C-alpha cells in the first residue's frame, strides 16, 4: 500500500511540473501579454532633386554692321536731274539739297557748281524764269542709258539714234541734242570732238540762258 501511494504522489508531481512549464514558442515570438514589436521602418523623406528650369531662349544677336562701308549710290544724270537736284528747282530749293555751291547771280542767269564735281566742272545754270535750267557733268557720270564723257561718238549714236547735230556743226566736232528718254521736256546736249564725247548736259528744251 505504501509503495502504491508513493508512486501516485510522484506521478502527480510530474504532471504539476509539466503544466507549470511555459509553452514552447517558435521563432522570436514575444511572451504572451507583451506588446507586439513595431515592424514598419521609419520613412525618411528624401527630397527630390530640383529640376533645373529650362534655359531661356538667348536673345538674338544684334545685327552686325556690314564689314564694308556702304558706298553712296553713284550719281546718274537724267531723266529729271541728278541725285536730289532736279530741273525746275528754285535757287532756294537747289541750295537746300546740299549738292550745290553758292550761286553767282551777278549775270542774268545764275551759275553754281556741284559739290561732288572737280573744280570748275559740274556746272548748274539757274534761269530767272525756269529755275534750274541745265546741269552739266564731268567724266565718270553717266546717263541711265550709259552715255558718258570719253565714249566714242559712234557708240553714243547707237544709244541715241535720234541725236541731231546743231546746224552748221562739223561732223567730227559736233554739238547736238537728243530728247531725254522719260522726259520729253528735256534734252541731252552732247558735244563731240575727234570722234569722242567731250561734254554732257541735261537741260530744259526751252532753256533761255545760252544758245
Offer a concise description of the structure.
This protein is of the alpha+beta class and 211 residues long.
Describe the structure.
- It is a single chain.
- It is built from three helices and nine strands; from the N terminus they run H-E-E-H-E-E-E-H-E-E-E-E.
- The model is unreliable at 1-5, 7-44, 51-55 and 59-70 (pLDDT under 50).
- The protein is an alpha+beta fold and 211 residues long.
- The N and C termini lie far apart (183 Å).
- The strands form two sheets. Strands 3-4-5-9-8-7-6 form a seven-stranded antiparallel β-sheet.
- Helices cover 15% and strands 22% of the residues.
- The chain has a domain at 81-204: protein yfey like fold (Sandwich).
Describe the secondary-structure layout.
Layout: H1 2-20, E1 81-82, E2 85-86, H2 91-96, E3 110-113, E4 123-127, E5 131-136, H3 153-159, E6 164-165, E7 175-180, E8 183-193, E9 196-204
Antiparallel strand pairs: 1-2, 3-4, 4-5, 5-9, 6-7, 7-8, 8-9
Amino acid at each position: 500500500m505504501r509503495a502504491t501511494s508513493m508512486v501516485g504522489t510522484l506521478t502527480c508531481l510530474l504532471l504539476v511540473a509539466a503544466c507549470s512549464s511555459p509553452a514552447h514558442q517558435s521563432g522570436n515570438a514575444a511572451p504572451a501579454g507583451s506588446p507586439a514589436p513595431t515592424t514598419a521602418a521609419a520613412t525618411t523623406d528624401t527630397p527630390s532633386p530640383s529640376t533645373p528650369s529650362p534655359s531661356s531662349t538667348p536673345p538674338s544677336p544684334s545685327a552686325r554692321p556690314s564689314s564694308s562701308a556702304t558706298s553712296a549710290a553713284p550719281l546718274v544724270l537724267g531723266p529729271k536731274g541728278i541725285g536730289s537736284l532736279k530741273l525746275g528747282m528754285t535757287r532756294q530749293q537747289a541750295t537746300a539739297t546740299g549738292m550745290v555751291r553758292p550761286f553767282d547771280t551777278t549775270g542774268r542767269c545764275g551759275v553754281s557748281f556741284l559739290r561732288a564735281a572737280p573744280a570748275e566742272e559740274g556746272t548748274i545754270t539757274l534761269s530767272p524764269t525756269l529755275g534750274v535750267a541745265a546741269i552739266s557733268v564731268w567724266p565718270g557720270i553717266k546717263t541711265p542709258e550709259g552715255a558718258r564723257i570719253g565714249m566714242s561718238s559712234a557708240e553714243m549714236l547707237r544709244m541715241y539714234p535720234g541725236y541731231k547735230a546743231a546746224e552748221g556743226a562739223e561732223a567730227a566736232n559736233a554739238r547736238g541734242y537728243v530728247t531725254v528718254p522719260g522726259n520729253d521736256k528735256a534734252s541731252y546736249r552732247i558735244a563731240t570732238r575727234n570722234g569722242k564725247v567731250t561734254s554732257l548736259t541735261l537741260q530744259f528744251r526751252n532753256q533761255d540762258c545760252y544758245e
